[in-house]
Fold this sequence. Notes:
With 281 residues, this protein is of the alpha/beta class. Helices cover 45% and strands 14% of the residues. It has a single domain (15-217, 232-279), classed as 3-Layer(aba) Sandwich (Rossmann fold), CATH 3.40.50.970. It has a seven-stranded mixed sheet with strand order 3-2-1-4-5-7-6. The longest helix is centred in the N-terminal third of the chain and has 39 residues, at 2-40. The model is unreliable at 1-6 (pLDDT under 50).
Amino acid sequence: MTTATCPASVATATADRERALYATMLRLRRFEEKAGMLYALGNIAVPCPLGYGQEGAIAALADALQPHDVLVSLAALPGLELALGASPLTVFQRLAGSNVAAGAPHALLRRPGQDVSVLNRADPAHIPAPGRAGASIVLATGADELAPFVGPTRDKILAILMVPSDRRPDTSTLPAAVIFRECDGAYLDAISAALEAARETLAAGETHVGLMLLTPPYAGHARDRGRRPPARRDSPDPIALYRHQVVSSGRLTDADACAIENAVRDEIAACGRAITLACAP
Length: 281
């Protein structure tokens, strides 16, 4: 009896995870689209940092986190906040706050067992140590930002650079011990596998491990393909790729995918209306 039920249980868990990942990727994309509209209307104080094309990388990173990990993002990415469980309305409200324009936060910190904190800056000296079974993960979009976090006085750091595939940064400013493995950031499963391999390398005794997530080089929110630079017009969409994968696997039907898309659309639309009403004179 047990042997017969195990495969079904595993398949169900896999399908549930795939649904959650797909919903997360869509939530990130729809949030940014709505944030762009709200900024144009003057309902939020500052433009939303763009992560178009990075949804798969962000969703995979959030999914790969373990309870005892410490995560430091050297950019306050709204998408990462959402992927880690923040309410879209809460993030909209933060972007709409008048205090944001005066000094936009530019770091996120996730401690074991605590919600994500939005910081004005990330100080390596004040980053808490992970739990015994956890890892310290530092996410950045530029190599220079990582330098203070991967110095000789700090060890057991998983340094992640998330950059468009046509903008590989110069990592020569980082310690020679940090060798970056490149990963195709268009494919969520590849990212998950790369994160797991990096964690195993740390557990095996490496001091620093580097991972470069090369995401599709989309040009912000430009929906008109003619407005994108030629090198970016044919970039794969990680959300479309993942939708095709999970539907082709049979664990998600077209009807299921459409239901998820509609639910996310309605959720973001409701949050957008709330912000618009709050900002009405």
